[in-house]
Amino acid sequence: MRNIRLNIAYDGTKYCGWQIQPRDITIQEVIEKALSKIHKKKVDLIGSGRTDSGVHADKQVANFVTDIDSIPANRFRAAINSLLPLDIRVLSSREVPLEFHSRFNAFRRTYKYYIKLADVGHPRYRDFCYLVRRPLNLNLLNDLARELVGEHDFTTFAAAGDQAPTKIRTIYSATFYPEGEFIVFKICGNAFLQRMVRSLTGTLLDFSFKGKTPEDLRFILLAKDRSLVGPTAPARGLFLNNVEYPED
Amino acid sequence: MRNIRLNIAYDGTKYCGWQIQPRDITIQEVIEKALSKIHKKKVDLIGSGRTDSGVHADKQVANFVTDIDSIPANRFRAAINSLLPLDIRVLSSREVPLEFHSRFNAFRRTYKYYIKLADVGHPRYRDFCYLVRRPLNLNLLNDLARELVGEHDFTTFAAAGDQAPTKIRTIYSATFYPEGEFIVFKICGNAFLQRMVRSLTGTLLDFSFKGKTPEDLRFILLAKDRSLVGPTAPARGLFLNNVEYPED
Fold it and tell me: Which one of 3.40.390.10, 3.40.930.10, 3.30.70.590, 3.30.70.580 gives the CATH number of domain A2-96?
């Protein structure tokens, strides 16, 4: 028995998120089907965490246990890719200790949210970002984002009906910066609530457009009141950028 | 009367090329409609040349004559963009001499063709490139491409039924190089036949996969026989990158 770790990238546009759903097609399901074809039996794939419907990944991490001896660990990449649609790609495969668990061992997650001015630059990549029509105030956005760093109860930014036992999360960094033709909001934390990054992004943009202050943001964070947030930014701009493990 | 020059970028995916067609929707048509709305009468837009169905542009150049005095030349950009779909963007607008003609005055055109290995890197931008499944031999591709430089009769690479009075074109440069996650084939010439860049790209890739030599390419160029070329590369990877004028 070997435990195989996969680093995976995907264009989530057509998928109902990572995690298997009763009705809709998901990324986990598509990869499990490829694994099951290789193994000629059902294989479970453990992911580092869910990504929401329409959200992408630069690097999602998952693992599965295999009883196939004939495929070297690093060759699972090509074997799985040959059975996957082109919007999901295994970037690498390697053997990890049997104890390795993609979700429990992950200690840090990073997301990148891509924003673009609707009227500037080339329109080609607009389906992978959020087009905004007003100029961005990067200084103010970064002043607002700084308020998120540290350990906070993020109830204000949780989705309605979120079942997480605690809404306390630790944010290590949160910054806006230009990257090519985009403005990126990069946020790194121990873990995130469902839709939390999109809610944060939408609120920071909304607050910056309205000229609100870091104090205003601190206030709504402490208020634990979902009615105070801005509109949720669309899924298409969000990428799970990295998941980190002690073994990396 | 003022002559206004536009630099335009577009995602050509949904359009039947630049030039107005009786039935299908084209980029020229969409921009002319915006101009006609601003002028409250029909306005003709002159482009530097056609791009084929599905082909994109980083910089297409076009001009139109206006009798509106109230809009400064550089404000036409925003006025037109406000009436365009998001896959067509005017990058700049400025006044040029009345003699300026986007097509007749253009002395050099540059195209970029984006290629990507299907199994490497992020799948997100795969609709804007040609995915190939075999590793590329950049040295051989550049040796082959070098054969294109100079003045040649490109009958071999013309589309069936091409009506151009002469198939002689001058190529100033033609190179393959890495750009981010892509391999780009960049070709610069005085003008190009319809589908010529895609036919050249497809043939160079095909020849490189088959280990053919620069002599083989020279042979088919001289043969003026369309049956000798490789498959035409798909439109989605092709960008009109630049059009140059003496005034630039």
Answer: 3.30.70.580
- Partner residue facing A123 (CB), from B89, B118, B131: B89
Q: By the CB < 8 Å criterion, does B226 face chain A? A: no
Q: What is the pLDDT of residues B177-234, one digit of tens each?
A: 999 889 999 999 999 999 999 999 999 999 999 999 999 999 999 999 999 999 999 9
In angstroms, the separation between the Cα of residue B225 and the nearest Cα of chain A is 35
CB contact under 8 A, B126 and A11: yes
Q: Which CATH architecture has domain B108-244?
A: 2-Layer Sandwich (3.30)
Report how far apart, in Å, the C-alpha atoms of B109 and of each of A85, A161, B9, B96, B188 are.
Answer: 36, 56, 15, 19, 6
Beta bridge partners of B239: B56, B112
Q: Where in chain A are all domains bearing CATH 3.30.70.580?
A: 2-96
> The tokens of A203 are what?
């609120």
- Is B245 known as a binding-site position? no
